[in-house]
């Protein structure tokens, strides 16, 4: 983990750079594809989805007042967002398309004012920040 300064344009620029974005997304897809069949099942993605901690309220723990089956349903509905054709599996194109939407939503949420945040090493936000810093270094 590292503390970085970024804004919506950092993320948006990363998403718009198809080469950099697709390379990063493809790497994450490959890491999740345990059986190397170029398809992700719910089991392949479950850990990644749960790491999002969508109901997090206190120090990295999902809100305990939600019933476990309700929480599981929530994560299944997130998987369904990736599984656009309803096949029960996510291919590379579906994964890229949903990750693009997710990252653009993050960019919109960040807005135009810089914020300081903790980002995960190797995560999409860290890659976006490193990409921007590399471009600034080249320009200098």
From TrEMBL:
Signal peptide annotation: none
Limits of the EF-hand domain: 70-105
GO molecular function: calcium ion binding
Keyword Phosphoprotein among UniProt keywords: no
Pfam family, one: EF-hand_6
Transmembrane segments: none
Calcium recorded as keyword: yes
Gene3D superfamilies registered for this protein in UniProt: EF-hand (1.10.238.10)
UniProt keyword list: Calcium
Entry protein name: EF-hand domain-containing protein
């Amino acid at each position: 983990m590292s503390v970085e300064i970024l804004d919506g344009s950092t993320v948006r620029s990363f998403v718009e750079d198809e080469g950099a974005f697709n390379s990063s997304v493809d790497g994450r897809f490959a890491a999740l594809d345990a059986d190397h069949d170029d398809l992700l099942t719910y089991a392949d993605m479950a850990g990644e989805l749960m790491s999002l901690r969508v109901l997090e309220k206190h120090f990295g723990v999902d809100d305990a007042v939600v019933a476990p089956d309700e929480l599981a349903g929530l994560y299944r509905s997130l998987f369904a967002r990736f599984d656009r054709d309803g096949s029960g599996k996510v291919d590379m194109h579906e994964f890229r398309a949903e990750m693009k939407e997710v990252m653009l939503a993050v960019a919109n949420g960040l807005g135009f004012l810089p914020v300081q945040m903790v980002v995960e090493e190797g995560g999409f936000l860290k890659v976006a920040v490193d990409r921007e810093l590399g471009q600034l270094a080249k320009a200098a």
